[in-house]
User: Fold these one by one.
Assistant:
Number 1:
Amino acid sequence: MDNSAQGGKAYGLLKSQQEEKLNSVNEAFLSDPQYADEEDLGSKLEMFKKKYVDFDLNDKGEIDMMGLKRMLEKLGLAKTHLELKKMMSEVVGGTSKETISYNDFLQMMLGKRNAILKLILMFEGMGKDQEDKDSAPPPRKTFSDLP
């Protein structure tokens, strides 16, 4: 029996379930009075959702340590295990959770705290807009360059 088609189908199903889950989290944020004053909340949430699914999500649709590591490596920011743990705990508020849920992710992106991961993603977003105008490769960012 050929399993590969099944795997692809299951993956597609997982993706659409994840998408639904993320959409429902977005709706909860849209109706949350805490974020009522947030400008363009709808489009921000849509953008954050795209960023979130850029990560390699685990089977629960959350960002785990490996997903975080791979994402940062893609951005040219290889991190040690210790740095990754620190970034994780910044996002999930110091709990010893091993994953970042979409809820955690949104709270980080919309929150007032400047988590390192948030700065990196914001910076990376700005970098994307510049890329079209400027074809020279940007200088590699290191941790010491971050504010």
Number 2:
Amino acid sequence: MKFKFCSDGDCPLWALAALHALSSLPAPLFRNLLHHVVEEQPDDGIMEILKDTNLSSREECARAAAVLRWTLRQAHRCACSGVQLARDLLVLGVPRAHAAALAEAADNTRDAYEAHIKTSGFMVNKVTDVFASPAPEGTVDSIKLTIKSDEVFAGEQNTTDLIIDKTQIKDLLEELKYVYKKMDEIDME
């Protein structure tokens, strides 16, 4: 079958199995778990929520959090409304109360997701600084280019050192200017 929140494809088996496992939870407990995951609280809280259920192992707790995050992310990425998500989940056999809770969470978190995408959605790493310095001893006609960048999704800062031949620097600069010009053209449209 085809589901909108799965990019108009079939639901992966791991997600289907995890959603099925969550369907045994009472609705209030499921809503509490979903709220905990949406609020991005520490994963230890998930174990506390699920401690008196058949999903109390560390692996089951991780699987539960992963499928909830994946379902919401997929709904946002595929422009799947809460109503459509609920329909798709009902077809997959998710209980009505669980499907409604996930649909509500998808609708409630959509604005924050879209705002995040607008600011950093097409960015893999954000370059924060660039330094040029003499290349290490033993290299001829080269410079050392140090690029500092922030990984958008991991929240980490990386430093990359490149040893570049001086003849390639001019070509690199021309290519960067060309890319900058093209991005300006796209921005003007």
Number 3:
Amino acid sequence: MPAIEDSYGTGDIVDTICRLNPDLLAESCQHILSYLRGQTRGVDSAEVFDIFQKAGVTLECESLQSIIRFLLLTFRSAGKSKLSADDLMSRLEEGSNKWSKASLQVLHNLWSEHGESVQVQQAVQDMLSVGQLVDMQWKLGLAVSSDTCRSLNSPFVTILLKIAEPSGQISQKTFEMTVPQFQNFHKQMKEVVAAMDTV
């Protein structure tokens, strides 16, 4: 669960959440849970902002985004930890004494209804998560000798891949190929690009 009362003011976020009308909180959470269940591509904060304005709630855009991030992190963490609705409520109450009964009841009801599908979607995302290629560098080298051979005189290509992992960290992978292997790799990459252009 997000740490309450930290330097980012999440204690204030909880206070703001608790001042919301329960129906407005439920509607906002529905947008977040739809995203976490894989039904939408993201949480449209502009749409949620419009809902707040139509309900007569004046809130700065930055405050609303903080609420969305907090609830998104809360539900995502609960999904990954496979928490029941009661366990989620216990963690939230442990984190802050500012939670109102009405707000906790809304979150409890929504998590009871949608928590299982969020957990399934989180598990699927974990299994299917693939890193994204950020950078690729290569250089041509010539092996002139080794411990086992006096003279190799064979060219090779060293490739360095930088990959953004789903966790957000960037990792580096390095490997070597012979020139014919690199030429085959180049040919296959051209085929991939051509296939992607047709999509």
Number 4:
Amino acid sequence: MAALWLQLIKSRMSTQIDKEGCREAYNQVRDDNTDTNWAVFKYQGSMIVPADQGTDYEEFKKMCTDDARLFCFLRIMTGDAMSKRAKFTLITWIGDNIGGLQRAKISTDKALVKEIVQNFAKEFMFSDPKEVDEDYLRTELKKAGGANYDAQAE
């Protein structure tokens, strides 16, 4: 009986993920035929679910509040005069009001997200709204992308 009770408690505490829903949102961002450039996954109880997706980066930023724990898969166009290409990043957002246990748990829960979100150039973890700056992310993704011909542009 005690083993059954322990298993029940463990199953309620362990985080799960809506694989189908999250994969669909992820694929929308990866699809070059859509304008969707971000998808956010949030906690709904002990389940990670798709929260929203869109084309306006500012809408994503508004979701990064002090009380939120989020994962965001983001497409940013990088390049120069010679070539333009999509680069992808995974952002983990942990708001300032998130407690220690939930902060610690997000690190292990990220493994569930990474089972779906597998292709990205760089990963970030933020907790300050100032850090979620689109230009900063673009610069970091350029650095991760290799050749940069901006200096040769007229």
